[in-house]
Write the structure tokens for this entry.
Amino acid sequence: MRKEEKPDILKAGSSRPLSASEQAHWEAYLDQHPLEADTIESELGLNRLLRELPDQSLSSNFTAQVMEAVGGLENRVRPGRWAGISWSCFRPSLRWARPAIASLLVLGGVLAWRQYEAQHQSRERLAMSVAAVSEVTSVVTVDMLRDFDAIHQLSQVPVEVDLDLLQALE
Amino acid sequence: MADQADPDAALMLRVKQGDMAAFEELVDKYKQPVVNLLGRTLADPVEAEDVAQNVFIQVFKSAHRYQATAKFSTWLYTIARNLCLNEIRRRSRHHTESLDRSWEEGEDHSIRQYEEERVPSPPAAILQKELQMKVEEALGDLPEVQRTAILLFREEDMSYEEIARVLQTSVSATKSLIHRGRETLKLRLKAYLKTGLWNEKRSQNKEQL
């Protein structure tokens, strides 16, 4: 007989009385290990005391009360058919938030694009203005600027058409 | 699959599909063991039964998450122990509350139906009753984790591994808890442990020699 069989029998004796074969098993073990008699007897004795403990009091309609309690839950949460429903109390708020968040994102994107376009257009206009000015500045020379005052004064003099000179030139 | 070896796991999988008859069958089977476990920790039988009901309600609520990766009883006793510890913590936070609080709130306890207790009889029964009280007292004085380990060890189909899962500890720690708890109980109940059977047989063997 192997010594490691001892714990298995101890467990069997803890939840129910030893069967005839188990008892014979222990008797044989004790014959081989007489010095362990006191130890084995105290273990088996404790098992018996624990096994003979009476059940705690329990109302006879316990099951009915439990079924009544879960019956109310079943109407709200049907296990199996609505797997994952425990998260449903959070999902409705997320359901409403999703389109709102999406709308905000789209709106934000549109506004950002418009601003970008506006900035881009203003840059374009600025660039064109700069280009225009740069063309003018490239045409204007120093010599032209020298006669600027004279030309400016001429422009302020009312111009009368000299018809005789015009006929002569023709 | 665990449900092939564990019929209770198979029942629980049916509960997952909405089978209320399967759930009722599980409640009927485990209500007494659960109350036995809770009653010896909470001491108050009414409170123990309330918590036991909550255990099964929690089992029902968690049915959609149940997976037969372990025995059903392991999962059940884990829930039972957790709710029991929650109750103990709640008590420690509200220690000034009377245990009769539920009565003062007008809770209807008349709906509970208890079996009529037997009339005490011969002295042997009285002695047996006293012995059981001593055992209960010795058990009650153990640390909760040792007591729970020993009570779960009583259950025929709970292995060290399953008990370790309930206690959320290792197998070696579980064996140690059970061993220490039993040593304390043996010391406390020494006078009541001798069955006389083995002594009698050894005397007979000596006479035969």
Summary: The first helix of chain B runs from residue 2 to 5. The CA atoms of residues 31 and 52 of chain B lie 7 Å apart.
